[in-house]
Sequence to fold (331 residues):
Amino acid sequence: MMKITWRPITLELKNVFRIAHGASARRHNVIVQVEEGLGEAAGVAYHNETPERIIAYLQTVHLAGDPLHLVDMLAQLPQGGSRAGRAAVDMALHDLWGKRLGHPLYRLLGLNPADAPPTSFTIAMDEPKAMAERAAASGMPIIKIKVGSENDEAMVRAIRRATDARLQVDANGGWSREQAAAIIPRLAQYDLQIVEQPLPAGDIEGLRWLRAQNPGVPIFADEAIKTPDDILAHAGAVDGVVIKLAKSGGIRAAVEMIALARALGMQVMIGCMVETAVAVTAAAHIAPLCDYADLDGPLLIANDPFRGLRYDGARLLLPDGPGLGITRRAD
Fold:
């Protein structure tokens, strides 16, 4: 049997992270280790993921065999329960696979890290002035603005005046159909790249209706996109989908979902939760398959105990170490 261990970790955010679902100053994740491979599970309440639920899943995982036989190892993972927990073990197995073979994961997947799209930087909801100051101070060329409040246009306008960065907005399902149809054309004047999850997850017909209104900005679905069936259900209703390892259940599932979205003519954003360098670096290894990246998790937290992915402005720099290339901070 392969040795599996885990430990909860509390992440302290640099700023209060306020979105349409609520606000938080801390996140509670779980770091997983399979032999020498590392993974991470994000405890995201609005996805029904808590450390307790994640650990309950991990207690059901029993792996045996040769870790070089990656497909066989992944096939042993229980399919029910916590998707974030399954994603963490999947990451750890990919990390272990790369470490045993002596190559970084992107190379084993045949990907060129230079093809990864630049990442956005997220500005959580706050007073418009504070949001604008944060956006300008970041110096980042792509800003994702959390919206879904009565102050949305004022927030976007303030940020547009403070920076010439490309702008994206993410409502996290915070608008009704009528609100979205009214606000998106007004926000479009501020030169938006995309609008993410304008309607509550599951309102596929609403998304289809909204897209038919020609709002002037591509619409992406996020919260509802967890499985290949979800992508199939959203075909024709949105312009693109946001794929995250914690939602999909890991790297292998995410790669398959990216291929499906491409086959259906959809664009793809690779995203992250509020996570350490472990999970975000894992996602970055498959970023070259995607059109957009929202992989700023390590930039949002103050106590990341790991090193991996680095940033040259918005450019993603993948580590060359074997597997995910993660190291632990000495300080």
Remarks:
- The first helix runs from residue 51 to 58.
- The radius of gyration is 19 Å.
- The chain has two domains: 4-102, 108-328.
